Structures are given as C-alpha cells and as structure tokens.
Amino acid sequence: MSDLPEKRGDRASKRDAWNHTTPVVFSPLFDWPLRPGAAIAALGKRWVTFSRNVIFLAMAFGVYRWLLPEGVAMQSLSLEWVLPVFLRNAAFMLIIAGGLHLYLFTFRAQGKRLKYDAREEMEKSGKFSFRNQTWDNMFWSLASGATIWSTYEILYLWAWANGAAPTFAIADHPVVFVLWLLALPVLTSSHFYLVHRLLHWPPLYRKVHSVHHRNIHIGPWAGMSMHPVEHVIYLSSALVHFVIPSHPVILLVHLYSRSLGPAFSHSGFEKLLVKDTAVFESADFHHQLHHRYFECNYGTVDAPWDRWFGSYHDGSEEATARVREQRRKMYRNRPAG
Fold this sequence. Notes:
The protein is an all-alpha fold. The protein has one domain. The chain is 53% helix and 3% strand. It has twelve helices and two strands, in the order H-H-H-H-H-H-H-H-H-E-E-H-H-H. The chain has helices spanning 36-48, 52-67, 79-106, 133-161, 174-199, 202-213, 228-234, 248-259, 261-265, 285-293, 305-308, 317-333, and strands spanning 271-274, 277-281. The chain has a two-stranded antiparallel ribbon with strand order 1-2. Helix 2 packs across helix 8 (248-259). It is globular, with a radius of gyration of 20 Å. It starts with 35 loop residues before the first helix and ends with a helix.
C-alpha cells in the first residue's frame, strides 16, 4: 500500500502543486512549557532513522577511515593530498546533486508527486549564466561551492594534523561525540539565520545573494548555487571546530550537511519516492517558502529564530498576506539606489 499523504489542494500560488500540511512546525526543543520527551525524540530521530543525515555520517566515517592520508602528510599543504580533497568533494556533489536532478527532473521518476511547484523544466533565461538555470547552478555549485567547501576542510585537516585545532578521541569521549551530533542542527540553523539575514541587507543582496535568489523554481543544483562571497559566509559555521574541541568526523558531517544537504532541501519534492513508497524526507518546505516570498523563513525549523523575530511563514494564506504586507512596507521605506 502507498504511504503517500492523500491531501491535495491549492496553495498561495497556482504553480505550487503539492499542498503541504500547514502550519510548518518548528523543533519542539524550544517549546514552552518544555516537552523533554518530544525534544529528545526530535534531536535523536535524524540519527536513528534512514535519512540524509545518516548518509552523511556514514560518508564521514568512511572518508576518515579510508580516504584521509596520515596526519604527518597533512602537516604541510601540498597538492598530493589537497587536490584529492577537492576532487572527492566535487564527486560527492556530482553524485548527490546530479543524481537527484537526474532522478527528479531528467527521468521524472516520481512525476509531479509531492512536488511543490507544478513546473517541470528548469528555466532558460538571460538572468542565468549560460542562459540556462541548470548549467548556471552547476557552475556556481562546483566552481565556487566545492572549492570553498574544500578550502574549509583542508584548513581544518591541516590545523588538526599540526595540533592547532582542539580535538578529542571518540573512543575516549563517546558522549561528547553524541552531544556534537545532537547540537549540530541547532548550531547550523542559528548560524544560517544570522548570516542569511545579513545576506538580505540590500547592498549584500544586490551584489551577492541575488545569485542564489535567481532560483524561484528550485531544484537540487540550486542549493549551493551562490556567489563566492556567500559561500565563504554560509560555510563559516565550520570555524567553530577551530575553537571548540571536535573531531574530523564531526567536521566532515558538518560540511556535508552544509554543502550536500541543500541538494535535498532545494529538490522541490517533499519526499523521495521509490514507486509509491516514501524513502525519506527531501525538500524543506520552510525554505521553499523563502524562495517563493523572499523576506521570510531565513532560518530552518531546527531553531525558531523566524518565529521569535516575526519572519515566520507557515504556508497558510494568512501568512502569505502578512509577509506580502511586510514586504510592501520594507521596500517602501528603503532608499532608492
């Protein structure tokens, strides 16, 4: 029997094909009164059920165990080990973002089922490099995204090999390792909200963030399609590992979630289906609404910054009207130029 949700209908835009159940709900971690059971379940679920997070964790352990050179080799920066890091990350991006694009948009393996936007094709327009949305997104994701992601990874590995980054052994501190996994979503969500609000500051938006926001009808390659300055800012949450004792596996999971996770969250489909069975959660409806209405949902549902600061769109008609009114006031009050 199919496990697809049955409710379908119209949303704020006629181009939106799948009617996500509203409202969008934030993690119960910050609910008041406190709900400890729900909070623990929400934190642990992503690591004990089949999800992209478990895939990233398995990848991180595999790379750490079999693909990283000896620490002595990484004590100096050389192409012998630096180049394989970039090539490996580019390959990961090609496999994950490219694989999702082929499955969902080229082969249309699940048609429009659970697709938020009814359009099937990516855009071909002069606003994109090469006048083609897919090629534009691939270029920025690989040429800039994979390069800057790899730079953060290389700098950490070099610092780790030279004893300049605080670390711990998993065998000696397994609880710390688990705590890192539980804390990562809240940490990255909070960082994303703060830097994303900064990127919507008009000077930065016009020169930098607009590259990403050319994508309204989003797909897997859109997630990391950004200006190089935005890649530097967006991935800067990884700098926390240079300050707080961490481990290369944690660093890799962090960077995979930031660099490969957007291929899922921007896929445009709520779930990935194999025939009629949902394999796991895919697109982030909370962020889908951001690409539709721009001035809302700057963070993620893992930390309720949007709710606390009034930039929350829950998918309802009422929220659409409120956000549009806020945008009118915002743009009316902005100086020209």
